[in-house]
Amino acid sequence: MSRRKKFFDPYEDFIVDPRFKKPVYVVGKLSVNIKGFGFVSPEDGGADIFIDAEDLGSAWNGDRVKVRITDDYGRRREGYIVEVLERVNQIIVGTLTQIKKKTFVTPDDKRIDREIAVPKLEEKFPAKTKVVVKIISWQPLRGEVVEVLGKENAPGVEIRGILRSHGVEEDFSPEVQAEASRIELEPSQNEISKRIDRRNLKIVTIDGEDAKDLDDGVYAEERDGEFFLGVYIADVSYYVRPHTALDREAFERGTSIYPVDRVVPMLPTELSNGICSLNAGVDRLSMACEMKINSAGKVVDYKIFPTVIHVFRRLTYTEVNKFLDGDKNFLADCADNLNVLKKIHGLRKKIRSERGAIDFDLPEMKIILNEAGKPLEITKRIQSVAESIIEECMLLANETVAEHTINKKIPSLYRVHEIPTPEKVLTLNNLLAHFSLHINKGKEPSEFQKILSKVKNLPAEKIIMTYALRTMQQARYSPENLGHFGLAAKFYTHFTSPIRRYPDLIVHRMLRASFEGKKLSDKNLEEISRQSSERERRAIDIEREALDLKAVEYMQQFVGQNFDGVIESVTNFGFFVELDNGVDGLVRAAELDGDYYAFVEREFALIGTRTGKSYHIGDNVRVKLTAANKKLRQLSFELVSDVANRDLIAKI
Fold first, then answer.
1. d(Cα 227, Cα 538) in Å, to the nearest integer?
2. CA 195/CA 197 separation, integer angstroms
3. Residue 121: how many other CB atoms lie within 10 Å
4. Cα–Cα distance between 366 and 363 in angstroms, integer?
5. DSSP letter string over 404-473?
6. Where are the chain's structural domains?
7. pLDDT of 102-132, one tens digit each?
8. What is the Cα–Cα distance from 249 to 554, expressed in whole angstroms?
9. Which of 23, 124, 129, 508 is the residue whose CA sits 20 to 30 A from 625?
10. How far apart are CA 168 and CA 463, in angstroms?
């Protein structure tokens, strides 16, 4: 029942709660559930506020709103929206419908349950045409078509729709393109003459086969029982200067985005794939972080400086893994470099492990598409040794640069990851209790890593790892060094990917100023941190939505078939089952036969009120795929049989 109806006072336009002497209002961001209700996250902290579907008013998902509190039970609060303070849904993607003289758009986002009238649209379009609409009036709700994406289900249309719904344009403005076209095609000899020359080193890049924006090169060798490691990063800051169109665009985009079928770069290809990319066989300007590492793997000296390099070879992860697997005749001209890199990798992994760094080695779902964008296969992508080697080199460079900026008092941006909240640690411990495991206080990363080590290669590993990951706070950017909890690092920044991440570009810019004896103002670092963190989250959402879309599209061919899976999460409306290929879907509680099943949060289970039969996280089940809904990007399962995985506790 709506709280408005329960407490409505005919003499006043707000809810009256006898416990409050005066109305209590809260401002925050609204998140709407697909079922219609929503929650508001207060800007000043505190528990989220539940908003009944009838009390949303004209507010949409993501809007900044003012809420009147009606019930307050500490951790559970309820209210209704009295005012929309900021509209974020100015651009809507949806399906165009033309009936006689009426034209309207039905939003793709099912959390928006209102149709948008489109007046004065005389052109006729085929049925199920996807369009982008700009809201021109909220009362009444009206919009204008600003882009026609194409026919629904046509190649690329749905991914473009996801991008547009998040406000992402793929093309660069004429001003930005014009500026990019004026960038030099090769480094100038004048600039090269000012830099320390490292073109004599056999530097290699190691990336995926399809990578085109090559940020980083590496070179290593042994020297008198110690190691030299050079990490060479594309010097984007030389080409992208402050107060230019390129810089404004990079700030606005924040990061490159990698939906399943394309790349939306932060910088035009003239830079990202051209002059800033560390392509083999050509001179490139670079920012170097050269480190002297002792036999225990610790950095004992370092230098950070602008340089010029000439990449010796462009290697792929596949090639390097083949070499590391024992094919010594393969990549013979890079053998010394690769062998030393492998030694450094082992030493650094050991140091991070002893430090207590958390190793979330979850396999990623990868979808193989044909040229038309149709999904052909779903595979699990597991990090290879070659990828891990490069990761360790980049982590070490990032830590070294971060500590350098602290010691030299250089204003900078940091990649921070804060301690998990006690509430989230408690929730994780409730789950761990079912596996006879426990985290003490959760204030040290080593506590989490010990748990993950105990369940390594056991049936419960992925479930516990997933919930441990959810316990973590979200990493973000900050002008203040707060350390990185997950990496167990006192100092950490992002220095190694300035082609595709704006914070890295800013770190380079601050370093460049320090080399020139200048100190750039730090007054904008807070805004850059906020914008970059938001843009990163937007990119993650887009990539996840695109992956979910293609996963559901792939699974459509298997509707009616049975699959084995494991219960990965339980809610009050059912439980989600993950299949072996990484996709998941919902078994609805209302469709479970023989009993009424209630959600017992502390047990992470649905339990039958009459029979006591239960469905817990980690239970093995067999399900039938009954629906694959592309619009909702959801799979629906029907339970066929269950084989409770109670032996998980004994095995641990």
1. 40
2. 6
3. 16
4. 9
5. HHHHTT----EEEBPPPPHHHHHHHHHHHGGGT---SSS-SHHHHHHHHHHTTTSTTHHHHHHHHHHHSP
6. 3-86, 91-154, 175-416+481-544, 422-472, 559-651
7. 899 999 988 888 899 998 887 888 989 999 9
8. 35
9. 129
10. 34
Third-level CATH fold of 559-651:
OB fold (Dihydrolipoamide Acetyltransferase, E2P) (2.40.50)
**Homologous superfamily, domain 3-86:** Nucleic acid-binding proteins (2.40.50.140)
- Evaluate whether 32 touches 56 at the Cβ level (below 8 Å): yes
Residue linked to tokens 């900078």: 412
Whole-angstrom Cα distance, residue 649 to residue 44? 41
- The C-alpha R_g of the chain, in whole angstroms, comes to 27
**Which CATH code is given to the segment(s) 91-154?**
2.40.50.700
Give tens-digit pLDDT for 248-299: 999 999 999 999 999 999 999 999 999 999 999 999 999 999 999 999 999 9
Could you tell me if 464 and 435 are in contact, meaning their C-beta atoms sit under 8 angstroms apart? yes
Assess contact for 542 and 257: CB atoms under 8 A.
yes
Q: How many other C-beta atoms are found inside a 10 Å radius of the C-beta of residue 546?
A: 22
| Strand order across the beta sheet in which 216-223 lies | 196-197, 299-310, 283-293, 226-234, 216-223, 204-207, 313-316
If you ran DSSP here, which 8-state letter would residue 53 be given? G
pTM strictly above 0.85:
yes
Q: Which two tokens stand for residue 431?
A: 């789950």
